[in-house]
Amino acid sequence: MSATVVVSAGTYHLPFNRLVDWMEPWVQAHPDVRVVMQHGPGRPLPGAENHAILSHAELLALCAEATAVVLQGGAGGVMDMRQLGRIPIVVPRVPVDDEVVDDHQLIFSEQVSRLGLIHRATTRDELVALLNAALAGDLPTRTAAGAPTSGVSAVGDLLRELPRPASRSLRARRFASSARSLVRRGH
């Protein structure tokens, strides 16, 4: 097999069968592509290597080596891919058919798409076009791992300007220290 696509519906307690429905015809049309699916409580994807849940380490290892990564629109998965230097294709869950309780994934994915951190697919045709472009090498799926965004840089500048009074509580000092550490690492 020449290519691998990792698809993750996440570990959210509600199924994301629309993602499986959208992927199924593409998988059938590309039998030479290895597709690994973490489907959570949803249904397995025919033609894929299916896992209800993979360990975090296993999922990250697969994503690091994959030709393309397809995710639900949760912030955690997107940030994991950013740390790996991946630009995932993201299909946001919508508050229809019990996929998710509100439209936060639509809003989040729109914003991070504008920043160039993801490729967003809100229709099956968009998903198929993005997958085909990724496999053809016409869609960037990798970037510098952990490169800071302008928002992270701005927060770092603000944190560096904060006074460091001795009178701050231990909790406040620990928080500031942790935040400065994250900014230095480019999260």
TrEMBL record:
Stretches assigned to the Glycosyl transferase family 28 C-terminal domain: 4-136
SUPFAM superfamilies hit by this protein: UDP-Glycosyltransferase/glycogen phosphorylase (SSF53756)
Protein name according to UniProt: Glycosyltransferase
